[in-house]
C-alpha cells in the first residue's frame, strides 16, 4: 500500500514512519512543513530507503496537497501534523488554529476530492486516520475515573481546543460526505527523538547540564505515559484493521505524578550518568518548583480496553522499562541532541540535497 503520513518528521510521526518502513512492505510519503518540531535527522535510518519519500509541504496548502494525492495515490492517510506543545499554545495560539484546524480542514478536503474519484474497490478500502489526543476530554477529578471513547469533550488549552475542533471536523466529514475515517486519542508519549521542550527530555537534558529541573505548581498533576513505539504500533494496527467511523483511546496504564516522573529520571541518572556536573551532589537537588501552567489539567488517564479487546493491541513497555530505554537513548545519542540544541538540525535538508547534487 501507499501510506501518506503527515507530520512524519515529528516525534510520533517519525516513529510511525520508521515502524512502517522497518516492519512492513508499504511505501510512505512523509508530508511535513518542517516547523521547529520537524527534524529529518530522526528519520536518518530510513531516509535512503526506496519505499520512503519526503515532501516539505504545509498541510494548509491545498494546491500542493492535491498534487501530492494525485501523484502518490495513497491507500491510507495517517494525519499527525500538528502544533503539539501546550505551553506554546498559551503564549501564541495562531499557529495552532491554522495548522490544527485549518490544516486538518484542507487535508480533509484534499482527501475527499481524491477519494470521490477513486474506483469503487479502492474507495472501499481507503482510510483517513486522524491522530488526536486525550487532552480533548479535559481533566479528571476523581482518582478512579478514566477517559473512555464516549467521555464528553471539555478541552482546557488553546492546543486541546484546536485538536478537539479537528476531531469534530473529521467526524463531520465522515457523517456528511461518507469519507472513511478512523480516529485515535492517545495519552502522553515519551521515548527517543522527543523534542526537549516536553517534560521528560527536558528534565533529562537539564539534569545532565546541571540546570534547574522546573516542576510546574506542586508537581501533583498526573499523566498516563505511553512509550512512543507502542503508540506507533497501535496506530498502524488501527489504520489497517479498524472499522470505518471507529474511535480508539490509546494509553499505557502508566499513571504517574509529574514530581514522581522527575524523581525517577534523577534516580536513573544517578545510576547511568554518575559523573555529574561540578558542584552537583544529587540530581534531585536540581528540582525547582516554578509558576504553574495557566489552566493546567490535573489528571489524565486512559481506559484502553476497547483497542485491547477489538484489535488485540497492548503496550509492550512498562514505565520502568520504557523510561530506562529513553534515558539510555539520550545518553547515547549526543549528536542528535547537540544538533537540536544548536539548531543545526534545521540545516539537514539543505545539506542532504547538496550531498545529492
Ligand atoms: P511534534 O510537535 O513532535 O511533531 C509535529 C510535526 O508536524 C512536526 O514534524 C512539524 O514539522 C509538523 N507540522 C507542524 N505544522 C505543520 C503544517 N502546517 N504542515 C505540515 N507539517 C506540519 O508532535 P508529536 O508529539 O509527534 O505529535 C504528533 C501528533 O500526535 C499530533 O497531532 C499530536 O496532537 C498528537 N499527540 C501527541 C501526543 C504526545 O504525547 N506527543 C499524545 C497524543 C497525541
Ligand atoms: O496527553 C497527551 C498530550 O501530552 C499531547 O496531546 C501533547 O501534544 C503533549 O505535548 C503532551 O502534553 P502535556 O502538556 O501533558 O506534556 P508536557 O510534556 O508539556 O507536560 C507534561 C506535564 O509536565 C504537564 O503536567 C506539565 C508538566 N511540566 C511540563 C514542563 C515542560 C512541568 O512540570 N515542567 C515543565 O518544564
From TrEMBL:
CDD domains: dTDP_GD_SDR_e
SUPFAM superfamilies per the UniProt record, alphabetical: NAD(P)-binding Rossmann-fold domains (SSF51735)
InterPro entries reported for this sequence: dTDP_Gluc_deHydtase (IPR005888), NAD(P)-bd_dom (IPR016040), NAD(P)-bd_dom_sf (IPR036291)
Reaction(s) this enzyme catalyzes, per UniProt: dTDP-alpha-D-glucose = dTDP-4-dehydro-6-deoxy-alpha-D-glucose + H2O
Record carries keyword Cell membrane: no
This protein's name: dTDP-glucose 4,6-dehydratase
Top-level class of the enzyme under EC nomenclature: lyase
GO BP term (any one): nucleotide-sugar metabolic process
Family membership noted in the UniProt record: Belongs to the NAD(P)-dependent epimerase/dehydratase family. dTDP-glucose dehydratase subfamily.
Cofactors required: NAD(+)
A Pfam family: GDP_Man_Dehyd
Keywords in alphabetical order: Lyase, NAD
Start and end residues of each NAD(P)-binding domain: 4-326
Enzyme Commission code(s) on record: 4.2.1.46
Gene3D superfamilies associated with the record: NAD(P)-binding Rossmann-like Domain (3.40.50.720), UDP-galactose 4-epimerase, domain 1 (3.90.25.10)
A molecular function (GO) term: dTDP-glucose 4,6-dehydratase activity
Amino acid at each position: 500500500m501507499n501510506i501518506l503520513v503527515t507530520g512524519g518528521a515529528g516525534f510520533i510521526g517519525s516513529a510511525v514512519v520508521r515502524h512502517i518502513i522497518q516492519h512492513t512492505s508499504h511505501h510512505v510519503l512523509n508530508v511535513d512543513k518542517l516547523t521547529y518540531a520537524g527534524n529529518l535527522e530522526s528519520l536518518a535510518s530510513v531516509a535512503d530507503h526506496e519505499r520512503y519519500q519526503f515532501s516539505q509541504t504545509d498541510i494548509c496548502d491545498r494546491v500542493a496537497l492535491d498534487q501530492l494525492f494525485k501523484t502518490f495515490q495513497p491507500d491510507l492517510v495517517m494525519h499527525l501534523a500538528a502544533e503539539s506543545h501546550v505551553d506554546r499554545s498559551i503564549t501564541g495560539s495562531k499557529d495552532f488554529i491554522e495548522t490544527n484546524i485549518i490544516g486538518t480542514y484542507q487535508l480533509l478536503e484534499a482527501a475527499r476530492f481524491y477519494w470521490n474519484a477513486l474506483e469503487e474497490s479502492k474507495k472501499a478500502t481507503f482510510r483517513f486516520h486522524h491522530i488526536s489526543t486525550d487532552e480533548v476530554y479535559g481533566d479528571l477529578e476523581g482518582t478512579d475515573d478514566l477517559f473512555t471513547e464516549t467521555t464528553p469533550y471539555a478541552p482546557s488549552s488553546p492546543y486541546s481546543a484546536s485538536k478537539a475542533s479537528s476531531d469534530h471536523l473529521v467526524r463531520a466529514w465522515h457523517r456528511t460526505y461518507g469519507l472513511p475515517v478512523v480516529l485515535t486519542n492517545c495519552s502522553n508519549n515519551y521515548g527517543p527523538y522527543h523534542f526537549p521542550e516536553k517534560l521528560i527530555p527536558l528534565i533529562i537534558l537539564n539534569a545532565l547540564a546541571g540546570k534547574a529541573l522546573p516542576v510546574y505548581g506542586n508537581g501533583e498533576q498526573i499523566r498516563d505515559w505511553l512509550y512512543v513505539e507502542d503508540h506507533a504500533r497501535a496506530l498502524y494496527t488501527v489504520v489497517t484493521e479498524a472499522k470505518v467511523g471507529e474511535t480508539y483511546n490509546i494509553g499505557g496504564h502508566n499513571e504517574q505524578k509529574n514530581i514522581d516522573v522527575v524523581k525517577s529520571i534523577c534516580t536513573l541518572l544517578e545510576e547511568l550518568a554518575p559523573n555529574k556536573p561540578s558542584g552537583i551532589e544529587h540530581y534531585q537537588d536540581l528540582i525547582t518548583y516554578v509558576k504553574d501552567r495557566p489552566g493546567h489539567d490535573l489528571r489524565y488517564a486512559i481506559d484502553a480496553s476497547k483497542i485491547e479487546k477489538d484489535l488485540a493491541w497492548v503496550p509492550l513497555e512498562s514505565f520502568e522499562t520504557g523510561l530506562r530505554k529513553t534515558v539510555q537513548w539520550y545518553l547515547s545519542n549526543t549528536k542528535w541532541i547537540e544538533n537540536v540544541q544548536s539548531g543545526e538540525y534545521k540545516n539537514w535538508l539543505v545539506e542532504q540535497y547538496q550531498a545529492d547534487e
